[in-house]
Amino acid sequence: MIMEKRYLYRLLFMCMSSVLWACNGYLEEIPQNKQKLSTTEDYEQLLNNAYLTKSVLPYIDVLTDDMDYIVADRKPYYANSSDTYLGAHMWDNSIETTMPNGDEVFEKFYNSAYNTNVVIDNIDDATGSVLDETVVQITRNHVKGEAYALRAFRYFYLVNMYAAPYDPATCETTPGIPVNLETTADDKVYRRESLKKVYEQIVDDLKKAIPLLEENPMTTGKTRFSALAARALLARTYLYMQEWDLAIEQASAVIESNPMLFDLRSAGENPVIYTEAPLTEWTTEAVPGVGYLSEENANVLFVNGINELYIILSSDIAQTVFYPSETLYNSYEKGDVRKYYFMRRKSNGRIRYIKNRYYSMTYVDFVVQLSADYGYTRVLRTEEMYLILAEAYAHKTDGVATAVGYLNTLRETKFRTEDFETTGRLQAEDFTQQTLLETVWKERRREFCFEEQRWFDLRRTTRPSITHSGLNGSATLQKDDPRYVLQIPQKELNVNPEIGANPR
After folding, report:
1. 321/87 Cα distance (integer angstroms)
2. Where is the secretion signal located (predicted)?
3. What 3-state class would DSSP assign to 261?
4. pLDDT digits (tens, 9 = 90+) for 139-191
5. Are residues 320 and 187 in the same domain?
6. What is the DSSP code (8-state) at residue 424?
7. Where residue 340 sits, what CATH number does that domain have?
8. Contacts of residue 249, Cβ cutoff 8 Å, sequence gap at least 6
């Protein structure tokens, strides 16, 4: 139940956070005596603020080969919002060059992580709103578990944006990112930890979070971390660390608890959905279906942040001339329903994004207003666990058949039944380890498009050459280009120069 007091606390914390962080570097500590927190409800509201339910990271898919900027569609008399992200799309040395407020991810994610530090350090002393101490202790432990999981989530994103991909052979000496676990006001210089230490911190936080959440269950909804969602994030982390056995252990545990997959077989039999016929109406209601990433879906474990793509992938060229790329659209095989459930070609030949199917557009002076009705782009769900298992087993010399089995389990629910049986079912004998890995990576691209995973997958796998077109010609991200590591925002380097810029 949401009470008026909750809104007052939320407003208080948001205002306090904005003022304090405007006066300090994003990594500098806020004095503890400025935090007027005493009850478990206070800390819950601080944690709510740390979950960041507003637009934070709209540009990450713009970096990838899943999105095209169509110069021919741009009208010079429109203030096209897609131009805001051209610096990112063209991989400028500092991608923030075209963003009015610069790259805000660094600031907002470290701010979020700081709030989790406050919760972790102080929640044990919080008083409860009920007399039953057992209930109060459950609340303390659960909120603390959430804070550990959310801190891990934030550092996972930060290290995969602003540091090199994890390599077990070099992680001890490769620079990662700064890690701040403190809430004190002492002045200090912030330097990067090694990549190994950053990932160890993420794993340690998740290992602390899982038992706290398992042993102190509370009904908080999928916009907050549960034990199962934390375990899913741990499986993803181990995959990135190339800890195949540990990734298998965690992903298997998630599937054992929740094996559900989003089943598209019935949708594939609907001729309004599975068709090459162009979408002539601008509304997604012209194509039936429910949001693929809706928190109401049984396969979805955790959702975070507003869907940030509608402002970039709107159907209105007055807003944007970014579209899902032709290479992505053409990567789907015959019978794969996802192609038509995620995207749809319009009558003008361009491709329209409809994956989430939350579409409640409100125009104020012809500006799209984002709202929570748009769903989410940062999601943890069971499909990822099947693909983690497939990839981890594909790295084992005796794991090809098992990996193919997990791929088929996933694919069977995404293909029309007839097509899966004739062409969609994979056979283990058709693969080597390398070709199987490439197949898994292609499957991940098709399954996770526009969920902020493609950029991370490109970084940690092949780092291929990609060419994008922009207003003034084209740009190429070379294979293994250092720009696969994003630049630390200049305003952060100005405050904390010891962090050091990333190589270019």
Report:
1. 15
2. none
3. coil
4. 999 999 999 999 999 999 999 999 999 999 999 999 999 999 999 866 677 89
5. no
6. I
7. 1.25.40.900
8. none
